[in-house]
């Protein structure tokens, strides 16, 4: 199939829409890394920067929705074009949620800075955040390359993030049982870990969208589920 | 029990009305239709789409033997309506065309009154026993054509005095007056404004209850809106034939995709 439309303005509109999405993806990646870094380094300025930065991500989502609505109204995209527009709208919503989670991490970092440090946990969280950021980076690459196999490969890596979250969940439970004075900090850290785990889920949802955009099918094989904390009893 | 259809647009019948096998059409030395096999369903709107000169109108015209009137045209292959071979020597093309109605691109009412336009077909086919009978047929056809309310007070005014959209609905009423089973439409809306187009499309959707409707259209959006099945023709070949929602969301053939998304194929 030839890849350019007879109407070159249509191609330019689609390009512009995807450029906005990639810009949004870049900001979301940065927010994940900065949020984790500010937590580990107890860096209040950086946390503040992440909280402020979320506004730009939200604004981009609004802009993408507006441009996508315009494109649907004016160009009536069908088949692969329509799938592309639908996926841009959905992926931008995923990225917006990722931005929100990063912002929430930064908020909790400000609170945590007033509490005693929890040895090891911020480092583990940062490793987990780095893994999710890599996944996001790779899934956006798969989007640009229109590579459904690469997207599915990223999707499978979410199980590792879930594993890391399970380990942290158990660790926090142990800390809290050891000394109830740890509860406040551990609850915040747990929510942060959960936020990152949820980011991973949004990355897998983006991977699904890529698969759908390229093939017109939804990936039907059930994803490996790694987060078992919601179905496990409390004893560790 | 698990029927989660979002609308009634899905095909409800799967009775085959028209069955074509190995149809070829030559105009002199031009090979206009190449080995087309297609099964068109009853009580369904089937859209033929494709670039100009792809053979969609030619194929449509095979279904009521309109190509017979063209000296250089040669049609081979098998076309059956309800299992009957329409090209059989014993089939009277005039009777066939009463069974297979046709509506053309430009509204072409006879230069007669609205009433006579509709009454003409039933009269020559001897469908009415008396004047009262004929009146009933005309009213029923005009109602089917969704134009009765607009013309009931001026049935004896000339048909050519109506607006374009009204004229086209009059022609549809005229086509259904002989109680056809198949209705062929060759770009029925291309000369109409969007409102008249909307009215004709609404009418097509209603006609689907009783007829097998085949429509040739250049408007992809129109095909998407009115049809349940879509056939894509390219250079005389039938490239893809399937459910309209499938063709417009995830076509199988790259040529179909190129054409419907407006890429140079």
From TrEMBL, chain A:
Subcellular location: Cytoplasm
Record bears the keyword Cytoplasm: yes
GO biological process: one example: intracellular phosphate ion homeostasis
Presence of keyword Transport: yes
Pfam families recorded: PhoU
Any one Gene Ontology cellular component term annotated for this protein: cytoplasm
Subunit structure: Homodimer.
General function of this protein: Plays a role in the regulation of phosphate uptake.
Entry's family note: Belongs to the PhoU family.
Name recorded for this polypeptide: Phosphate-specific transport system accessory protein PhoU
Species of origin: Palleronia pelagia
UniProtKB/TrEMBL annotation, chain B:
Keywords from the UniProt entry: ATP-binding, Nucleotide-binding, Phosphate transport, Transport
One GO process term, biological-process aspect: phosphate ion transmembrane transport
The keyword Transport belongs to this UniProt entry's keyword annotation: yes
GO CC, alphabetical: membrane
Cited InterPro entries: AAA+_ATPase, ABC_transporter-like_ATP-bd, ABC_transporter-like_CS, P-loop_NTPase, PstB-like
Entries under SUPFAM superfamilies matching the protein: P-loop containing nucleoside triphosphate hydrolases (SSF52540)
Lineage top rank: taxon: Bacteria
Keyword match ATP-binding: yes
Pfam families: ABC_tran
Domain (ABC transporter) ranges: 18-260
Protein name, per record: Phosphate ABC transporter ATP-binding protein, PhoT family
Molecular-function annotations in GO: ATP binding; ATP hydrolysis activity; phosphate transmembrane transporter activity
């Amino acid at each position: 199939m030839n890849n350019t439309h007879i109407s070159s303005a249509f191609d330019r509109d689609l390009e512009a829409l995807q450029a906005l999405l990639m810009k949004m993806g870049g900001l979301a990646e940065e927010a994940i890394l900065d949020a984790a870094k500010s937590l580990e380094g107890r860096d209040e300025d950086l946390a503040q920067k992440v909280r402020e930065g979320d506004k730009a991500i939200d604004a981009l989502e609004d802009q993408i929705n507006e441009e996508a609505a315009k494109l649907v109204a004016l160009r009536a995209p069908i088949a692969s074009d329509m799938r592309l527009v639908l996926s841009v709208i959905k992926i931008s919503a995923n990225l917006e949620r990722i931005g929100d989670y990063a912002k929430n991490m930064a908020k909790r970092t400000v609170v945590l800075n007033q509490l005693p440090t929890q040895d090891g946990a911020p480092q583990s969280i940062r490793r987990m955040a780095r893994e999710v950021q890599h996944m996001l980076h790779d899934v956006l690459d798969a989007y640009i390359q229109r590579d459904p196999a690469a997207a599915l490969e990223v999707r499978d890596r979410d199980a590792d993030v879930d594993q890391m979250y399970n380990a942290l969940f158990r660790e926090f439970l142990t800390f809290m049982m050891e000394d109830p004075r740890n509860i406040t900090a551990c609850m915040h850290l747990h929510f942060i870990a959960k936020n990152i785990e949820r980011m991973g889920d949004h990355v897998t949802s983006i991977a699904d969208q890529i698969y759908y955009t390229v093939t017109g099918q939804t990936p039907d094989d059930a994803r490996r589920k790694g987060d078992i904390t919601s179905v496990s009893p409390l004893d560790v | 029990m698990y029927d989660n259809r979002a609308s009634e647009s899905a095909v409800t019948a799967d009775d085959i009305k028209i069955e074509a096998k190995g149809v070829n059409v030559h105009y002199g030395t031009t090979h206009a239709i190449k080995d087309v096999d297609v099964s068109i369903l009853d009580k369904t709107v089937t859209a033929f789409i494709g670039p100009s000169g792809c053979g969609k109108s030619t194929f449509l015209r095979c279904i009521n033997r309109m190509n017979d009137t063209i000296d250089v045209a040669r049609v081979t292959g098998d076309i059956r309506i309800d299992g009957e071979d329409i090209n059989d020597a014993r089939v009277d093309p005039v009777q066939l065309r009463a069974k297979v109605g046709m509506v053309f691109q430009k509204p072409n009412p006879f230069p007669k009154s609205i009433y006579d336009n509709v009454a003409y077909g039933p009269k020559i086919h001897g469908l009415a026993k008396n004047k009262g009978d004929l009146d009933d047929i005309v009213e029923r056809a005009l109602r089917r054509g969704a134009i009765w309310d607009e013309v009931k007070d001026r049935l004896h005014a000339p048909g050519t005095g109506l607006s374009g959209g009204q004229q086209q609905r009059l022609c549809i009423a005229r086509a259904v007056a002989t109680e056809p089973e198949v209705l062929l439409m060759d770009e029925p809306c291309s000369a109409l404004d969007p409102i008249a187009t909307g009215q004709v499309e609404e009418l097509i959707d209603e006609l689907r209850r009783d007829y097998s409707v085949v429509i040739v259209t250049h408007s992809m959006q129109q095909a998407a809106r009115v049809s349940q099945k879509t056939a894509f023709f390219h250079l005389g070949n039938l490239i893809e034939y399937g459910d309209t929602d499938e063709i417009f969301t995830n076509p199988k053939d790259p040529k179909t995709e190129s054409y419907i998304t407006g890429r140079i194929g």
